[in-house]
Hints:
Layout: H1 11-26, H2 36-48, H3 54-63, E1 72-73, E2 76-80, H4 85-94, H5 96-100, H6 108-118, E3 120-121, H7 126-144, H8 155-163, H9 173-185, H10 190-198, H11 204-208, H12 212-232, H13 237-245, H14 252-267, H15 274-277, H16 284-301, H17 315-318
Parallel strand pairs: 2-3
Antiparallel strand pairs: 1-2
Helix pairs in contact: 1-14, 1-16, 2-3, 2-4, 2-16, 4-14, 7-14, 8-9, 9-10, 9-12, 12-13, 12-14, 13-14
Amino acid sequence: MLAHPHLNPSLCDRFQGIWLGSLTAASLYANLDDLEWLKIRHRIAQSILGEGQLNDVISTISECDLAHSEARDKSSASTVKVNTVEDYCQMISWFLPLLLAQSDRQDTEQVYTEILSRVGFDSVKTEEIGQDMRTWHYLIDLTLNNRFELEKLPLEGIIETILTGKELITPGLIPKLQIVSQSWKQGLGIEQIVNRLTQREKTESDRQTSNIKALREDFATVVALSFYCFASTMQNFEISVRRASQIRRNLSASTVLLTGSLSGSYNGAVGIPKSWSDTLIGSQPYQQAQILVLKIFQFWSGVHNLDDSNLLDRLEANAIALPGTFQYRQNLKIISQKSGLS
């Protein structure tokens, strides 16, 4: 059964959905208290909101272990090792607050650039991270905007919509999305799709070069798989994430994380199963996430007092946006679909 098939979540719900959806999905593999990438995300959010200094973010990244690998180069406290695709996806997930805070604030891009430039990566260049960040943010932006018309288009039509923005997509992802589209038409299962996406003969020169090429190819595979898991059952967060968790090899945890983000951004927080969120709501990281994402929404929308008792009397805060409307702050005319923002 589809979850809330006729529901159009408010933009406020979508903000919460992408943030909490990634946490909820990641909790299938780890305790929230152990998610170092989440601590970094929260520090970045606090820096954007003026609650912390950029140096705090840099220090947090330098001190944290990524995924299950040794993340710090002991000879340099500011160098982060990104050894696996799980590390890489977690690194991309750090910057969600910057994506959601897209606005007329002039220093948002500067914060992103400075974080990347001041944190050394032993195998990844800043411009390479930037390309993959741009791709991921493009997909999230499309989902938040509801640009796919998911209820009407088949999966291959959705992928065609994505590919209209080829200039915003990492070149390595394009053939992966085309494989997903062709496999969907042929009725292939998830394991067959994984096999097609990962079928690649490694040459000796590949083995001798930096692992960044393999990492970025794995990232493209994970993004393609995440989009398949999400778009094949777009109105059901649980089924999408469960499907991602069934993927074998080293791609499962990463695919679950990104699938939770995509499905959350489409279905909103209301689309996350209550039985899942109830198990997390008492944890400090989850509670902090709930607070920070609302503050990021305040920052983006210009409504700075969501808990203000007078807010209910403010017309602009109660305005109803058309479904699929996602406006950048500098062009903002309608705050949210959500009446009351309570």
